[in-house]
Specification:
Layout: E1 21-24, H1 28-39, E2 44-47, H2 56-59, E3 63-64, H3 74-90, E4 102-106, H4 109-121, E5 130-132, H5 134-141, E6 150-154, E7 158-159, H6 162-175, E8 179-181, E9 186-192, E10 195-201, E11 204-207, E12 210-213, H7 219-224, E13 233-242, E14 253-254, E15 259-262, E16 268-271, E17 276-279, H8 282-286, H9 288-298, E18 302-305, H10 326-329, H11 339-352, E19 361-371, E20 378-381, E21 388-392, H12 398-414, E22 434-435, E23 438-439
Parallel strand pairs: 1-2, 1-12, 2-8, 4-14, 12-21, 17-18
Antiparallel strand pairs: 3-7, 4-6, 5-6, 9-10, 10-11, 13-16, 13-19, 15-16, 20-21, 22-23
Helix pairs in contact: 1-6, 1-12, 3-12
């Protein structure tokens, strides 16, 4: 896909010998965490093995939504949307942030009932979401044949251009004092007495008092190399963008077979929810039982393959601090998109949205999405290792939530009062077993 805008500042400079917190990963979560800590006056170094937003943080659809969220995510998503508004005001560059609402349409009574049930469940949060009838749904998407039973609309939801947004936030973080390095892989951590004392990068050691690991799909192999198990797997996704097209709606519209998001360039980003390819790797067998409920729910949309990634960069490796790591082997994950699936999505989009008929596709791309067993983020301490804060598992809907998770990770890493309860995102929630006295 088209690369995200260049961010690099003085690419020949060397990282410092010591800092307060090291952030591993230059996606939306890591960049936001670095930005927050820099604003608080905390020395922070961000290490990105490739380029800022080179992977899923620039390859997603660009939705910033409360609508349809797991209830555990709603309080944090409210904070994330507030942050996005602040970022939009503070960044000099227009990164496409627009509050134009997001709608999900329903083709069947069952789909409509799902939206109604979610709306009922979030009543305590007093959101702006509301149901649309069939006529209102037709008007929204430019039809007049009552092809859909209705829709759910959240007028306060937003969207942005992810390939522009995250580099803009990185520039903001750098202006606040964060030291950001591209093409600088962290190979491993240094510890003493059960606590993180530093990181070993490909350019040498950085002493620090804490680490935030926000490396997306790379978090599991990174932790496995330290002897720590993480229930997280990665799936391949794909999306595409069209040439400029007639305006359909001002905000994104989701349907089961094709979803659209208007772009700054006048075209649309097209995708399909829960349509992915899962490549079997050794970790898949380790965590298989935890993912069974998810696979049962998604089996019609997920392709399972035993592909070249079985022993590839995200496979099972071990390396030492002085050895060339998988992160240096694959600076940016750039999987080949599924052309047949994208053809199907395009055909469905042109069927559902008549104004897209005859509009050509100008770019297609793939991405690697890290997925937790319940599709809710993983946040907090890992394996009892003090000073290590994990922030990952965004499960394909993390662009919008990312700033909230980055803020919460920064607060946990620095001992600040958390903006939302971190307990629902605890990393050990899949390891807990109920005994006579509750969770242990």
């Amino acid at each position: 896909m088209t690369a995200s805008p260049e961010f690099a500042l003085q690419p020949d400079r060397m990282p410092p010998e010591r800092t307060g917190i090291v952030v591993i990963g230059g996606g939306v979560v890591g960049v936001t965490a670095a930005l927050m800590m820099a604003q608080w006056g905390i020395p922070v170094v961000l290490c990105e093995k490739g380029r800022i937003a080179g992977e899923q943080s620039s390859r997603n659809w660009g939705w910033i939504r409360l609508q349809g969220r797991d209830l555990r995510e709603v309080p944090l998503m409210l904070e994330a949307q507030a942050l996005w508004r602040q970022f939009g005001e503070r960044c000099a560059q227009d990164f496409g942030l627009r509050q134009k609402g997001i709608a999900y349409v329903a083709a069947t009574d069952a789909e409509l009932a799902e939206h109604e049930a979610w709306l009922e469940s979030v009543k305590p949060f007093q959101l702006t979401s509301r149901m649309l009838n069939a006529a209102e749904t037709d008007a929204l998407i430019g039809r007049d044949d009552r092809a859909f039973r209705g829709a759910i609309l959240t007028p306060t939801d937003m969207h942005a251009e992810p390939a522009l947004a995250v580099p803009a936030l990185a520039r903001l973080a750098a202006a606040e004092g964060a030291q950001i390095f591209e093409r600088l892989a962290v190979r491993t951590l240094e510890t003493a007495g059960g606590r993180v004392t530093g990181v070993i990068t490909e350019a040498g050691r950085i002493d620090c008092s804490g680490v935030i690991l926000a490396g997306g799909a790379w978090c599991r192999p990174f932790l496995e190399n330290l002897g720590l198990s993480l229930p997280q797997l990665a799936v391949r996704s794909q999306a595409q963008r069209t040439a400029p097209a007639p305006r359909i709606a001002d905000g994104p519209i989701g349907t089961p077979m094709a979803s659209i998001r208007p772009r700054l360039d006048g075209g649309y980003t097209l995708g399909r929810t829960r349509a992915a390819r899962f490549d079997l790797i050794p970790a898949a067998f380790t965590h298989f039982l935890r993912y069974l409920p998810l696979l049962r729910d998604r089996w019609r949309m997920v392709k399972i393959r035993l592909g070249p990634e079985f022993f590839g960069a995200l496979g099972r490796h071990r390396w030492g601090p002085d050895q060339f790591s998988p992160m240096e082997q694959a600076r940016v994950l750039d999987p080949v998109p599924d052309a047949r699936l994208l053809d199907s999505i395009l055909a469905e989009a042109q069927r559902i949205f008549p104004k897209l008929q005859g509009v050509p596709v100008v770019e297609r791309w793939g991405g690697m999405i890290e997925v937790s067993p319940d599709e809710v983020p993983l946040l907090g301490e890992v394996g009892g290792l003090e000073g290590l804060t994990l922030a990952t598992g965004l499960s394909g809907h993390g662009f919008g939530l990312g700033p909230g998770l980055g803020l919460l990770a920064a607060q946990l890493a620095t001992g600040r009062e958390p903006v939302a309860d971190p307990a629902p995102f605890a990393v050990d929630r899949f390891h807990r077993r109920r005994g006579a006295h509750g969770a242990v």
